[in-house]
Amino acid sequence: MRKALVARLTVSLACCALATVATSTVSLAADRPSPVPTSPAPGQPSDGAWSVAEALRFWTPERIASATDPSGRPGAALPGVGLPGRSASPRARADVGQQFAGIPSVGMLFTVGSDMRAHYCSASTVQSKGRNLILTAGHCLNTQAVFVPKYDSSRTLKQQPYGIWPVDEWFADKRYVKNSRGPESDLDYAFARVKPNGTTNLQDAVGGSTLARPATPENAVTTVGYPNVGRNPQDRPVQCTSRTQALPGYNQMRIDCAGMWDGVSGGPFFSTLDRARGTGEIIGNVGGWNGGGPGVPTTHPAYNRISYSPVYTDRFFQLYDDADNGRHSDFGPYLQPTLPFAMGGWEQWQNARLLTTGEFTGEGSGDLIAVWADGSVDLYQGSGTGDPQRPFSATVRLAAPGSVWKNARAIAGGKFTGSGTDGLVVRWSDGELSEYRHVDRTGFHDEKTLAKHKNWQNARLISVGRHTPGALRDDLVVVWANGSVGMYADVDTKAVSKGTFLAKPNKTWPYATQITSGQFTGRKSDDLLVRWADGETTIHPGVDFAGLHGEIKIRPSKSPWSRADVVTAGAIGPDTTRNDVLVRWRDGSVTLHPGVDKAGLHKETKLVR
Prior knowledge:
Blueprint: H1 22-25, H2 52-58, H3 61-66, E1 95-96, E2 98-99, E3 106-111, E4 121-126, E5 133-136, E6 145-149, E7 165-172, E8 190-194, H4 202-206, E9 210-211, E10 220-225, E11 238-243, E12 245-246, E13 252-258, E14 268-274, E15 279-285, H5 301-305, E16 306-310, H6 314-325, H7 346-349, E17 352-358, E18 367-372, E19 377-382, E20 392-399, E21 408-414, E22 423-428, E23 433-440, E24 443-451, E25 459-465, E26 475-480, E27 485-488, H8 491-494, E28 500-503, E29 512-518, E30 527-532, E31 537-540, E32 552-555, E33 564-570, E34 580-585, E35 590-593, E36 605-608
Parallel strand pairs: 1-13, 9-15
Antiparallel strand pairs: 2-11, 3-4, 3-6, 4-5, 5-8, 6-7, 7-8, 10-11, 10-14, 12-13, 13-16, 14-15, 17-18, 18-19, 19-20, 21-22, 22-23, 23-24, 25-26, 26-27, 27-28, 29-30, 30-31, 31-32, 33-34, 34-35, 35-36
């Protein structure tokens, strides 16, 4: 008997995959990197002797040309030029950053260090009493830094249109840990006071933007920053207008915008931007979990597409007030606020291997179970609102990364008893078939073996539904490797000792790639929805022991559904009819299709972009 590793968490981790990201790649607190030695401690001057003249003497054109382009967050740089577009898939579209002339209030940071860095982060001027503050990311603190507004790579530092401004003193939250993947990554912001250039203060030269807290994590923003030269040979600023979403498990926002390579860290998220003045309202900065982006190789599409930002709270504005008044307070241990629910982004959901629906929380709403590539399992609780835009309201972790669930090859939710929550049938990699009579927020319960190992290794696809008379959804439909289709009734009481062929071995059913049971046609028995390899999608109405009863085509061959990698149906929409289809697409996006019937698909709601 397998015993699943169950770990109850009340929040979802940034995750998955890709990254995150994704649930599959989140590191534990013990793996957090420490601040680099070259970073000054918050509250210490950058260097008392660091002046405009000193900076100009050091940063000769030859040193700028030979300096190493650093990474704004962990990940090895690889050769490449230009700003890449979105992925080939038509679903998870990225907004695309565009090079532009720049604005005076946003610039880049140069620094002097043992690695001879050139520009390494972006920053923006903000309004202050002393007219001398810039905002950047907390992981951008460094010794002897220089801010260059609207940097022009065709000119020397001495010839820059708005001068150069040495950092005099840094202000950062004392509880922030550089490039953290823990809760304190919410604190990845910092201010710096810069020295005058001659008798002129920075804000008098370029203006200063205002700061505001976003009302929600979902906002229209314009992000501005300076990608490193290796990815941006023209060394020009990049802007991208996009919409933010909440980052699950963190008080942060994420955007999906291609071309935001290393170097944009610290760049502002403008909620409004007056291009004539060159200033606006800032509600975020590139930074946060892992230094502001997924922990994936530089070759992965998410590396330059996904950027994060802390959500500004009272703690941020306390630091702003400290910087404005030259104070260095300790705000105490960081406690995350109550976080809004978020499903996350495509970079996480690309790693959702298996999905199934059911009533697992006892709330009477449609819930979702996701098995991730790293072996973790999450339960998404139905919202009960009937709003197809927001079908889920909370996430509970049922199994941690590396658990036995990495060996699950197929799952199907069903109602196996007259009381309690729904359960699961699982086909494992060794061919064993198991049933969990109940699944709830605390884990998987009452496991029983339906078939011993090796016996079911050729069971490619499974689905559970109400295909025989009775109130329970406990009938198992199986598509075997040889193309045969079988059905086993009342598996909780009868196991799978005796089944009935719905289709004998053939050359058609090997092309079935996804099956799921649901109530699509109003028949007494559940229907079977099938997604075929070529994108054709069909419904077999009223499947029972008498057969498959023909098929209804709801998507033609060569349709985009050839990229519908995981398909499941349930009562996810506004009523209890199990005719809502949820799809995880190849690019990681997730859509909900409520009210599917014999007339076909009617609406598509994008849950994950």
